[in-house]
Design goal:
Part of the Bam complex. InterPro entries: BamD, BamD-like, TPR-like_helical_dom_sf. This protein has 354 residues and is mostly helical. Among the domains are: 37-128, Tetratricopeptide repeat domain (Serine Threonine Protein Phosphatase 5, Tetratricopeptide repeat), CATH 1.25.40; 166-277, Tetratricopeptide repeat domain (Serine Threonine Protein Phosphatase 5, Tetratricopeptide repeat), CATH 1.25.40.10. The chain is 57% helix and 1% strand. It has helices at residues 5-26, 41-53, 57-70, 77-90, 94-107, 114-128, 147-162, 169-196, 200-213, 220-234, 237-250, 263-266, 272-276, 290-293, 304-308, 349-353; strands spanning 267-268, 286-287. It has a two-stranded antiparallel sheet. The longest helix has 28 residues, at 169-196. The termini are far apart. The relative contact order is 0.07. Mean pLDDT is 79; it is low at 289-300, 316-321 and 332-354.
């Protein structure tokens, strides 16, 4: 029984395509063969330093990685690892920077500049928490996942405990203060959600965490008000009155004339229009006291153009924490290196006399 002509044509085309694909897949791929170092360790290091001075981070990374690969025990190996850590951070490869920092800490725990690796590890985890599109809106990252911020906080705690007199200790302490505010805002935001669903005990537990662990943050007044309100709803009038008395002494504006807690005075919610447009339009939310607490680093209000372009146009001037600097150069590495002369063996005085 013969096949129709169109079926024969389709069969021939299918066989032709299959043959072509098999032929392409059978072509041997060119293997990349590592021919070894093309320059000396000194040449690679000088190229890297020159590229770093010009902020050519891709070229610097190639030279530094070559030193790390071909001269792992060389004179410039440890300095190259620190420089590569700095390059990865500048390239916004924060995960790579964290991996390099942990590797350097593990291999060189007694290095005189190991504090730099501890510091950059914390800053990189901090940056990972904001490495998203949310940074271009007025929405708060603290209302989302803060797992990287928690890691960064622990990194800075470990760093300051080990190196309290480090040149990076002051900046690390400032970052810890900022992270505390973000973590406190995250906890109090969950407490607000629990209040809306009338989960009074869950809201009180979140607020209690803020009071106990972040007492110096601007979220403390709202946390105290939440505790007083939640325990009142739970029927514990005595405990609710204790927190109300604390509010009267420290934050009298949060207590109404009838003695009840005024939660709205502690928190100014963003408008519905602001939430619906992802923070582009409308009035944004604000926690009472935050503006005063961060007045040392003011930020200009964002224009409508800046909001509509997700922060790409008409950027306001921001006084952010200074970016990390390049790692210090180890003292044992000379600025101008030369091939060392052959050192003659020392002769014994008795041998010289003979």
């Amino acid at each position: 029984m013969s096949l129709p002509n169109y079926k024969i044509t389709m069969l021939a085309l299918s066989l032709g395509v299959a043959t072509a694909m098999v032929g392409c897949s059978s072509n041997p791929k060119k293997e990349v063969v590592d021919t070894g170092p093309k320059s000396s360790e000194l040449v690679y290091f000088e190229k890297a330093e020159k590229s770093l001075s010009r902020k050519q981070y891709s070229d610097a990374a190639k030279s530094l990685e070559a030193i790390d690969t071909y001269y792992p025990t060389g004179q410039y190996a440890q300095q190259a690892q620190l420089d590569l850590l700095y390059v990865k951070f500048q390239q916004k490869d924060y995960e790579g920077a964290i991996a390099l920092a942990e590797r350097f800490i593990r291999l060189n725990p007694q290095h005189p500049n190991v504090d730099y690796a501890y510091y950059v590890r914390g800053v990189s985890n901090m940056e990972l928490n904001y490495d998203s599109l949310l940074r271009y809106t007025s929405l708060q990252q603290s209302h989302r996942d803060v797992s990287y911020l928690k890691l960064a906080y622990q990194n800075f705690v470990d760093f300051i405990r080990r190196f309290p007199s480090s040149e990076y200790a002051v900046d690390a302490a400032q970052r810890m203060k900022y992270i505390q505010q973000e973590l406190a805002e995250n906890e109090i935001n969950v407490a607000r959600f629990n209040l809306k669903r009338q989960a009074w005990l869950a809201a009180a537990e979140r607020a209690q965490w803020v009071v106990e662990h972040y007492p110096q943050t601007p979220q403390t007044p709202e946390a105290l008000a939440t505790l007083a309100y939640a325990y009142d709803k739970l029927g514990d009038q005595e405990l609710s009155q204790q927190y109300t008395n604390v509010l009267k002494l420290n934050y009298p504006d949060l207590v109404k004339s009838n003695g009840k807690v005024d939660l709205r005075a502690a928190r100014h919610e963003g408008s519905w229009w602001n939430r619906a447009t992802l923070g582009i339009l409308g009035r944004g939310s604000k926690t009472s006291g935050v503006e005063e607490a961060t007045s040392d680093h003011p930020t200009e209000k964002r224009s409508l153009t800046n909001r509509l372009s997700f922060g790409l146009l008409d950027k306001p001037e921001q006084h952010e924490v200074a970016p990390i600097s390049a790692p210090p150069v180890q003292q044992t590495v000379p600025s101008i290196s030369v091939v060392p002369d052959t050192v003659a063996p020392q002769t014994n005085d008795d041998d010289a006399a003979n």
